[in-house]
Amino acid sequence: MKFKKVMCALLGMAMVLGMAGCGNKGTEELVSKDQPAGETQEDGDAAGQDAGGGEAASGEKVKLTFLRAGTDAEKKAFWDKVIADFETANPDIEIEYQECSYGDDFETKLNTGFASGTAPDVIDFTLASMGVRVPLGQYAALDEFTADWDGKDDYMESALNLGTINGTLYGIATQPDVRLLIYNKELFEEAGLDPESPPTTWDELEEYHKKLVKKEGDNVVQTGLSVPSSGSGQQHYLTIFALANGEKNLVDEDNNTVLCNSDKTVEAAEFLKRLEDEGTIPWDSSSSDNNPFGSGLAAMTYANTTDFANWNSGALAGKIAMAAPIKKEKQATFCGMGFMFMSGETPHKEEAWRFIEYASSADVAWTRYEMMGVPPVRESLKEKYIAEDPESNAVIYDSVACGVGSPKVAYSNAVFNAVNDAMERVAYGVEDPKTALDKAAEEIQKEIDNL
Questions:
Q1: Rounded Cα–Cα distance for residues 196 and 317 (Å)
Q2: How far is residue 329's CA from residue 244's CA, in Å, rounded to a whole number?
Q3: Which of 11, 15, 122, 218 is the most exposed place for a label (fewest CB within 10 A)?
Q4: pLDDT tens, position by position, 133-167
Q5: Are strands 164-165 and 251-252 parallel, antiparallel or unpaired?
């Protein structure tokens, strides 16, 4: 109850802040940094609704408002095509396209819409939003639409799981953001390591890391795995190794149990600290531009497909490759996800579902890959996708298949902040992993107790 009161107050504040428009400004940021923005949509379909508010009058089009996070031109071109093709195949539906930059702008826009009864019908946004918006009823449950949907059986199990809370499906996955182990084959050869045999286990990773570290006196001039010393990405690194060690996540979202200081997670933090003590180059993980891997000073790193493409088209072109997820107890990695959500307040649920179903279809998933390089999450596209680039795409697909996202909880930002702060203290030797993560757990528990 306290959580809902707080959220209602925040929504009210968004209204007071005004109807600030969302221009084409800003860039897309990390999932963990998404915050909400403000602008109302036109209520253009009211006149065509019957008394029940659900159907347009005979012969009139149903107008759906679709809002996506981000303002980059490449994705807009993709959505322009998808919407045009959908409207051609569905002449009874008109899609009003809106976009808004990630961060405070987008969140305020959603808050304002839901507070004023003008929320978009369909929303393209991230996994990070689910923990807050599902409890408020802002994202509709989709089980009634997917019960007999053939597409559901074609979806990767991991992608369906990421869109599910307490057994109910709320988001249809479209855009995976998986963390891949990327390595520099040239530096492997220089260290006497087989460039075609990257590490597969914790023990091998530690062995490779030690062989790849170079020092001039006490100064590290080359490292093995680039472990960040600060920034918003530290919780991703800890998650990757905690998952591989058999832990469920940093928090068990099913019962609000804190796991960031469990034995398995602490062991993962201790492993990362051993690598740092052996020799790493400090860097702020809030931006991949800071990563020493990009400048050839690290032989291995964790990054997404966009980072890999950027590095592989620059000075590192042809020198880097992807490796399968590292395991200790199991293979696993972190995987964020973009989803199609249906507004819990839309009066046009059937039409909204038709658009979501189309936009998440196998044909559109392949178009998304061709236009933007986004890995498909459809089993029927697996072989076709791998055939396009057998060396890299097989690794990407397998990584998504064993990927786990951030906990879908209302206090997710508290988890990110507490764990990032703890891992920074560990990196700089201020506290040992157990002490730092115990403190993080206490901070997170306070948030849970206030729900």
A1: 16
A2: 6
A3: 218
A4: 999 999 999 999 999 999 999 999 999 999 999 99
A5: unpaired
CA 409/CA 256 separation, integer angstroms: 8
Which residues, 6 or more positions from 222, have their beta carbon under 8 angstroms from its beta carbon?
187, 212, 213, 214, 281, 297, 298, 299
Tell me which H or E stretch contains 237.
helix 234-244
H/E element holding 175? strand 171-178
* pTM attached to this predicted model: 0.86
pLDDT band at 410 (very low <50, low <70, confident <90, very high): very high
Alpha-carbon distance 441 to 428, whole Å?
20
| Strand stretches in 202-295, DSSP E | 214-216, 219-225, 251-252, 257-258
Model confidence band, residue 57 (pLDDT cutoffs 50, 70, 90): low
Q: What is d(CA 182, CA 316) in angstroms, rounded to the nearest whole number?
A: 12
* Beta-carbon contacts of residue 315 (< 8 Å; ≥ 6 apart): 296
Amino acid sitting at position 33 = K
Whether the per-residue pLDDT at 6 is higher than 60: the answer is no
Among positive and negative, which fits the CA dihedral 22, 24, 30, 31?
A: positive
Angstrom distance (rounded) from CA 168 to CA 146 = 11
Do 294 and 316 form a contact (C-beta atoms < 8 A)?
yes
pLDDT at 449 over 80: yes
Nearest to 224 by CA among 254, 187, 250: 187
Measured distance CA(113)–CA(124) in Å, rounded: 15
Q: What's residue 11's pLDDT?
A: 42
Rounded-to-integer distance, Cα 203 and Cα 425, Å: 25
- Kindly state the helix (H) or strand (E) to which residue 13 belongs, with its residue range: helix 2-17
pLDDT at 300 over 50: yes
- Beta carbons within 10 angstroms of residue 126's beta carbon: 24
User: 119: which 2 tokens?
Assistant: 């929320």
Distance CA 100, CA 119 (A): 14
Confidence of residue 363 (pLDDT cuts 50, 70, 90): very high
Contacts of 91 (CB under 8 A, 6+ apart): 61
Phi, psi angles (nearest 5°) of residue 414: -65, -40
Structure-token pair, residue 351: 């039409």
- What's the number of CA atoms in the CB half-sphere (13 Å) around residue 416? 21
Q: Measured between alpha carbons, how far is 259 from 252 in angstroms, rounded to an integer?
A: 7
Q: 58: pLDDT confidence band, cut at 50, 70 and 90?
A: low
CA–CA separation, 402 and 332 (whole Å): 5
Residue 3 tokens read as 């959580």
Whether residue 344 has pLDDT greater than 50: yes
